[in-house]
Amino acid sequence: MNFRKLFAFLISSMLLLFGNVVYTLCCGPTPDPYDYYVSFFSPFTKGAGYEPFYYTALTTFYSDPTPSEEQANAADWQQYTGSRVSVRDIRDCIYSYSSANINAIASGNLPDSLKDNSFAQYLVKKPEAARYLAFAKKCEPYVSAESSWNSNNTNDAARNKLYTEGIGLYHESRDPKIQERYAFQLIRLLHYNNQFRKAITSFDQFFPKNTNSLLYYKSLSLKAGALYNLKDSVQGAYLFSRVFEKAPSLRGSCYTSYRWCNVTPEMVYPLCRNDEEKATVAALDGFGSTDEIPMIRRVYRLDPASPSLDVLLTRQINQLEEDYLGPVLVKESGDDKANSFTGWMEQPDYAKLKNELTALQQLADSLIAEKKLRNLNYWRISSAYLSYMQRDYAGAKARLAAVKTKDVEEKDQWEMINLLININQQKQIDKEFESQLLSSFKWLDKKIGSDSLGRWERPLDQAWFYRKVYRNLLFAVLAPKYHAQGDQVKEALLRGRCDSLNINDFFVSGTTAAEQVGDEMGPKELIRLKDFLQKKDKTPFETYISRFFPEGLEINQTIGTSYLRLQDFKSAASWYKQAPEEFLLHSFQVFNDQLQDFGEDTATRRFNKPISQLDFCNQMVAMEEEMKKGTASAAVYHKYASALFNISYYGRTWNFVKSYRPSYIWYTPEAEKSAFEKQYFGCYKAEEYYNKAVKAAAPGDNEFKARCIFLAARCAQKHVTITKDEAVYLRSWINNRYFPQLTTTYAQTKFYQRVYNQCGYLRDYVKRQKTGVSSTK
Question: Secretion signal: which residues (predicted)?
Answer without folding.
Answer: 1-24
